[in-house]
User: What shape does this take?
Amino acid sequence: MGRMDNHCSGHRVHMTVVGSIVLAAFAIVAAPAGAAVTPTPLQTRADVDELVPTALSGFEAWWQRSNATPSHSDVFGVARAGGNPFKINASGTNGYWPSAVQGTASVITSRPGARRTSTTST
Amino acid sequence: MTTHVRSPLVVQVNTPAWEYTPVGSKRYVAFMRLTSSSRNLVLYDKATRVGHRIATAAKSCDWCLYPTWVGASHLIYTQCSASNSTCQVRVLTIGSQTVTVPRGLAPYSNYSGSMDEATGNVYYIASTTWCGLFVSLNRWNVSGASAPASMYDLPEGIDGNSLSLAPDATVPTDEDLLYSQYDCLTDNSDNYQMESVNQCARVAARPEPSGAGTRVVSKPAARLAGASPAG
Assistant: This one.
């Protein structure tokens, strides 16, 4: 079953119920549990599937397909500091499965429409 | 990424066959190749210009095998069973042995591994074949010295698609964890990030459930639809 605990939260919240017939008291006890890490949204449009996020230090890339055109897929990139997303696959092609190339500034993608694997480099 | 220049890979990678789901590092490119008889996971070494077949899956199963990460000396891939839809993360030390990230028996499953080679920590999605049940982002050290630990438990009804590590934008020595999640009810996938996941405190492995829930949707289909070409 689903749980709501986040093991990476800076402060894990424990709710303890102290009850009696007359009074019920709720005590929230915060205990340090490592550094503060909580998931933050990157791409969350309801009308678009955003998948396979990957990143270098300066850029993020991901694969997306719109509900309006489910047979078409693109790979997009954006500066992690912010800015306008740009399409990585060439116009008129589909792009899939981006992956940051470790130790470089490139992202590798596949382009099944052309039956080839291709890369985007710096 | 800064110049937006696209470069094709070498002919040893891009053959007339269908190659897909590539991952890369400075030295290696790992990818799937569909042949007339099977699907092969190939590790291509840019230094020696030689590709080696690492694993093979049936041609009929387009989601049973795919690489998810390659670094300087390790390759991580996901290998799944076509019969019960469970998957396992495997970690190959290049030129040496392969180890399997521990998990429970079916319906437990894990997939989409990524590695911090400096520490040996492997991050991956732990799940079941039931959409959105018992899903977490886990960490396990390739030394095998300790049990897998959950970094974050996804809410019920939310499943994991994929996961990757990236250098933190402000603290380069830290690792951020990027992942996509799948909403089993709304049939929508979104991307999220956990910053500096390497700083997360290690916690005990969570207890395993005592019973099975109701199967909502075929997870491999939800996760991998359109991801690889049909045989």
About this structure: Residues 219-224 of chain B form the longest helix (6 residues). Chain B has a mean pLDDT of 88.
